[in-house]
Structure formats: C-alpha cells, structure tokens
Amino acid sequence: MTAPITRLRTLRDYIRWAVSRFQSEQLFFGHGTDNAWDEARQLVLGALHLPWEMADAYLDCRLEDDEHVLLHALLQRRIEERVPVAYLLGEAWFCGLPFWVDERVLVPRSPIAELIERQFAPWLPAAPARILDLCSGSGCIGIACAYEFPEAEVVLSDLSFDALEVANRNIERHGLEDRVYCVQGDTFGGLPGQRFDLIVSNPPYVDAEDFADMPAEYRHEPEIGLACGEDGLDLVRRMLAEAADHLTDHGLLIVEVGNSQVHVQELYPEVDFTWLEFERGGHGVFLLAASQCREHQALFRSRCSV
Predict the structure, then answer these.
(1) Among candidates 197, 185, 288, which has minimal Cα distance to 241?
(2) What are phi and psi of 120, to 5 degrees?
(3) For 118-128, what is the mean pLDDT?
(4) Which site in 45, 67, 208, 291 is 20 to 30 Å from 232, CA atoms measured?
(5) Are residues 218 and 142 in the same domain?
(6) How far apart are CA 197 and CA 178, in angstroms?
(7) pTM, whole model, 2 decimals?
C-alpha cells in the first residue's frame, strides 16, 4: 500500500482516505463496527488516543510527522494483513468499558452486553452473589458483570492459559482483584463443587462450514475460541450436561451460540429454550433456568457425545 502521506494533513483526511480504501479493498467489518466510516474513525482516533465523541471541528487538526508514520503503518496492516482494529490498537470496548486485547483472545463483541447493561432483567430474580463467566477469554463479560453487581464474586474460567493472562491483566486494569479471579479448566473442570447464581458463556460455537467461510479478519483470532466441531456444539453439549451441578436453585444459564442456534434446536427439540432478543442486533443466545437444567440433565448427558 502506498499512502499519499504528503497530501494527508488532518484527521479528517485520514478518515476519508481510509474509508475509500477500506471499501475498495472490500474489508470485512465484524469486530465492533459494521461499516467503513466507523472502522476508519475508530482506528484513526484510537491510534492517537483521541475520544470517539470528539467534536468534528477537531478533525481538521493537522498531524505531527510521527503521527503520520504511525497511522500509515496501522492502516497498511489493516488493509494488507486484514488485522482487526482492536488488535492494532491493543484495546476493545465492551459495555462502555475498555479492555486490553491481543491475538490470544477474541475481540469482545457479544450481544450479551445488552443483557449485562439491563442487569439481566427481567430474567434474574435477585442480584447474584456468585457469577461465572465460562470460556471467559479477555474476561470482558465477567468484568462487566462485576461493575453491574458490585457485591458479587465473579469467576473467569477458561481452558487457555494465554487467555487467562489477558483476563488477569484486565482484572488489574479495572482494580477488581478483591472479587474477580481466574480459574483454568476445561468447561467446569476447574470448579468442582462450586455453584453460581448466574453462569454466562460466550463459548466457541462456530460450525465447520461457517469456519471454513469466515473472512480473513477472523483468522487473526485464536481458533480455539471460534471453532468447536462439525456442528459447533462440542463444548455446549458438555456445558449443558454439567450445568445443573453448578447452578444454585434459582440460578440462570445464559449461553451464546450464534448461527449454531439451528443445531441446538435440532439436537434438543424437547427443551424449551428461551431465545433472547436484542435491540442493537445479535442472535443465538439462549437462557435456561436451573430447574430446566435439572429437568433435562439426563437428556443433555445422553446426547453429550452425539
């Protein structure tokens, strides 16, 4: 990529130029934005540590030489290598909170953010005392829950030691070491005998067909956080089989399965999943009460190895 650096003078110049290049190169926007303008603005302003809400008048500010060099390098990587903006900046936002991210974890983008902001109303009967973010990755879901429920103990659990290193860094960033902590384990493997009032999970759920067709941007994310078997449900099956043993009597299980919703419905037609709706987009998130997990546990266990 050869950028006309000598002609690009202002923030507005860079954003406009980036929008044109992003569209001409047919980049994919799926890691926090859904259009070229927002993507370009996020990258340019984020790289220079400027707020998203900055007044448009400041877009006509001229850049220093080192800022030109920085933006050129980042835009080159975004266009030629298809690196998501969050990885280029080392930061992503979720529920209005900043999180440190790199290629050891998925870029935060779950529609579960809407549920957290509403404190899971009307589904959660009371403020939870213990919350589990299962398959936590960066820890964004669990940490956001800790903000909404300031009295709750929150556990971030993941199989990946690399992901948990990132999660621990985010716990420290938000000063939550006193009540948010990490556990390493496969599904509930690191949590013997523990029960929770709320279990929330955005596990790997992409089926083989969708994974093969994913745009290049997703190839920068850890495969372990995306793909999960032919129908995407290898981990979800085990989660459902064990959830009843880790929920309190009035606990809730909330799991995102995205496009694999169709596979869940085909595999468990007997189960009355509550499929949640979102105002800001997103789909494939189900809710089960602890009583439902207990009622169907034998069924879930029988189909755990299907």
Answers:
(1) 288
(2) 60, 25
(3) 95
(4) 291
(5) yes
(6) 19
(7) 0.94
